[in-house]
Design brief:
The complex is a heterodimer. Chain A has 14 helices and no strands. By secondary structure, chain A is mostly helical. The longest helix of chain A has 38 residues. Among the domains of chain B are: 72 residues, no CATH class; 79 residues, no CATH class. In chain B, the strands form two sheets. In chain B, strands 6-7-8-3-9-10-12-11 form an eight-stranded mixed beta sheet, with helices on both faces. Chain B has a four-stranded antiparallel beta sheet with strand order 2-1-4-5. Chain B is globular and about 65 Å long. Chain B starts with 40 loop residues before the first helix and ends in a 5-residue tail after the last helix. The chains are: A mainly alpha, B alpha/beta. The complex binds adenosine-5'-triphosphate (ATP), iron/sulfur cluster and magnesium ion. The site of adenosine-5'-triphosphate has 16 residues of chain B, from strand 1, strand 2 and helix 2.
């Protein structure tokens, strides 16, 4: 298992290198070119001198290879200097904005997956009968609601008119739950339908396998077979699906952070883009990348824990 | 098995012979004996000894699909005596697996048992609450599945899968179950059983896996086991070993076996009785030796290669595409009429009855049983 972990981590190195390359292309070669800077800088500062100063400040005038190695170094040490607008250290900013993002995303994602699994198990057990059909109809209904429309409806009717939730805002500590409740609710409503449908398919597919019949033929009760055999086997496609969801998780939380004024990483990135705060942009994007890679490594470890064939292969 | 001659059996060509007289002595198995009639004491004891362990009567199991009702099993009956083997043969798709699944209450939706009984130990498996049936599965009746590759959960060690059966039906604790699983593996001829118990299914060869599947099915000494093509996926030498293994267990425990197979040679070797299935119904049953030496139904004859039929092979049955009638749209008369070289007008009028022709044999063909019998 440790061996597998080591191999898996080593295998992410080329990915990291590739990311660094894209990074370098976007931020240094394109983003650092005089032409680009001329367009992006505020009209007042658009003199050749300020542009040169800028390029010097960010080392964009150095040889390409040095710049590239520097980019890799920044990513590895996670040191991107200070924010353009607030002059705070970027790593400090990230550390300050992560908790709110985590507070939004982690519980919502956990509830989403747990609820979807429970509903999908119900569907698979009652396949074709009314609980299955009811959940199926509700899932499609949930899927057909765009997040944006739901945000507006939620803020208008549930928060503003019914006063069930604050419209938006934030506070430190446990009090944040008050502000997070509505975004959590919206998150789960929008996502759970997709999940249920996918999980149900995976479970039903496993249910049709011969080993399930064999387990039943041993005299095991259906519920036990469901938990011990069907669910475990369905976990393999389900994990794959969950990894694929991660980018949506990031964009989704960005959207919700924006609408509900939650000071999270998504909000930080949006602010950085709006003010062309290069160090913060680099840092947030690097953070996302590392998060995604880390997530897929963890998933692969879960695969290996579930499936003996993965451990050997 | 009765060695009796049946003088009324038609010769090879199957010319109509009229009504068939019943033999003087009733055959041991296979006829339509009523359950629990009043009998003289001595005879009752003798009969009780050979009372069937499983008695399936008039079983029908249909798949209610969107395209129509697939009558996969449409009135099948058979009995298995203690320690006896019934060979169930027929082409692919004729409903053999569906028969087995129906008896165990494991038909997948949209399949459902629509009528019939399957009596085991005086209880009807088909009319039992799911909970009670689950308690009987594995302990009283069990099934060996067609595909050894897919009948094992890939995410569980073989030992653990065998132990699960013991977990359901015995009081053994975890360690004892693990030990018993190793013993069971040894008893089905798996070398280095302690090691193999810890192996994953994908680490074993097909033959080994099928042994594990058998150990799993036989772990709690069931009274009846339905062996659904236990050897089809294996190579010839392994096939023979597996059949021997089932036979050995049978001798030890007196278990009754339904041997579902395409392999007529296997039936000849291992079975006492044979039931030939065609398009959801039985067309001929009887003692293996009699049926194979003097088949009565044209389909049985075709299977045995005594008369030619389109696409016919030798000992192994062969699927003939487009030839087996669609089980959702059966013809009105004899189901075999479209392929039968002897078919005549009367064959298409009504489905022939399954007629007792004596010597423990039954046939579903108007020519073989004679019109008078209908
Ligand atoms: N889940 C299902 N839904 C609808 N029809 C089915 C289903 N499973 C099987 N059938 C149909 O029921 C009929 C009987 O199938 P069954 O599996 O019992 O055949 P079989 O005799 O075991 O064949 P084989 O020798 O290929 O195993 C076939 O025509 C098949 O197409
Ligand atoms: S009843 Fe059926 S099997 Fe018998 S001769 Fe007619 S068509 Fe052939
Ligand atoms: Mg089959």
């Amino acid at each position: 298992m440790l061996h597998y972990l080591a191999r898996r981590i080593v295998s992410t190195l080329p990915i990291l290198l590739g990311v660094a390359l894209v990074f370098f292309l976007v931020f240094n070669l394109v983003g650092g070119s005089e032409r680009f800077l001329y367009n992006i800088l505020p009209p007042k500062g658009r003199t050749p001198e300020t542009i040169n100063q800028y390029r010097e400040a960010y080392g964009l005038d150095r040889p390409v290879i040095v710049q590239f190695l520097d980019t890799v170094g920044d990513m590895v040490t996670f040191d991107f200097g200070r924010s353009e607008s607030t002059r705070q250290k970027v790593s400090y900013l990230i550390a300050r904005y992560v908790p709110a993002s985590a507070a939004l995303a982690v519980p919502a994602f956990a509830v989403e997956i747990a609820l979807a699994l429970a509903l999908a198990m119900l569907c698979a057990r009652t396949r074709g009968r009314w609980p299955d059909r009811l959940v199926g109809v509700l899932s499609v209904a949930g899927m057909s609601l765009p997040m944006l429309a739901l945000v507006i409806i939620g803020q208008r009717f549930l928060a503003f008119e019914a006063g069930l939730f604050p419209i938006s805002g934030w506070t430190r500590g446990l009090g944040a739950v008050r502000y997070l409740a509505l975004p959590w609710l919206l998150w789960v409503t929008v996502t759970v339908g997709y999940d249920v449908r996918f999980f149900r398919t995976a479970l039903v597919e496993e249910q049709g396998k011969e080993y399930v019949r064999a387990a039943l033929a041993k005299g095991m009760p259906r519920r036990l077979v469901m938990r011990r055999h069907v669910l475990r086997n369905a976990l393999v496609p389900i994990l794959t699906y969950v990894v694929i969801q991660v980018p949506f998780l990031l964009t989704g939380s960005m959207l919700l952070e924006r609408f509900f004024s939650i000071p999270g990483i998504g909000e930080l990135l949006v602010q950085a883009i709006l003010s062309y705060d290069l160090p913060v942009m680099k840092a947030t994007v690097t953070f996302y990348t590392l998060f995604f890679i880390g997530f897929s490594v963890v998933t692969d470890l879960l695969y290996a824990a579930v499936d003996p064939r993965v451990r050997l292969g | 098995m009765t060695g009796e001659r049946d003088p009324a059996r038609p010769p090879g060509g199957g010319a109509p012979t009229g009504a068939v007289p019943r033999p003087a002595a009733p055959a041991a198995t296979g006829d339509a004996r009523r359950p629990l009639p009043a009998r003289p004491a001595g005879l009752a004891a003798a009969l009780a000894a050979e009372a069937p362990v499983l008695d399936v009567r008039n079983l029908a199991a249909w798949y209610f699909t969107d395209e129509g009702t697939v009558k996969a099993v449409d009135g099948v009956g058979f009995k298995i005596g203690k320690g006896k083997t019934l060979g169930l043969v027929g082409e692919s798709g004729c409903g053999k697996t569906a028969t087995g699944l129906a008896v165990l209450g494991l038909l997948p939706p949209p399949g459902r048992v629509v009528r019939g009984e399957a009596v085991l130990g005086r209880r009807d498996l088909l009319r039992m609450p799911e909970q009670d049936l689950a308690a009987m599965r594995g302990r009283d009746v069990s099934m060996i599945f067609q595909e050894p590759m897919s009948a094992l959960d890939p995410l569980m060690t073989t030992g653990a899968q065998i132990a699960e059966c013991l977990e359901m039906h015995t009081d053994l604790d975890r360690r004892q179950r693990a030990e018993k699983a190793v013993e069971l593996l040894a008893s089905v001829g798996v070398p280095e059983p302690a090691l193999r118990a810890k192996a994953w299914p994908h680490e074993l060869s097909g033959g080994m896996r099928q042994r594990v599947v058998i150990a799993m099915a036989l772990a709690c000494d069931p009274k009846v086991v339905i062996a659904d093509e236990p050897t089809t996926a294996l190579d010839v030498t392994v096939q023979a070993q597996i059949l021997d293994l089932i036979e050995d267990t049978q001798e030890r425990t007196g278990m009754g076996v339904v041997l579902v197979t395409h392999d007529l040679a296997a039936v000849a070797q291992a079975a006492d009785e044979v039931a030939v299935m065609y398009a959801g119904v039985l067309v001929e049953t009887g003692p293996v030796k009699d049926v194979f030496s003097r088949p009565a139904h044209p389909y049985t004859k075709a299977l045995l290669g005594s008369i030619p039929v389109v696409g016919q092979a030798d000992r192994q049955l062969v699927t003939i595409p487009g030839r087996v009638p669609n089980l959702a749209r059966l013809p009105s008369g004899c189901r075999f009429a479209d392929r039968c070289p002897l078919a005549e007008g009367a064959c298409r009028v009504a489905e022939p009855d399954f007629i007792d022709v004596g010597a423990g044999r039954k046939v579903r063909c108007i020519l073989a049983t004679g019109r008078a019998a209908r």
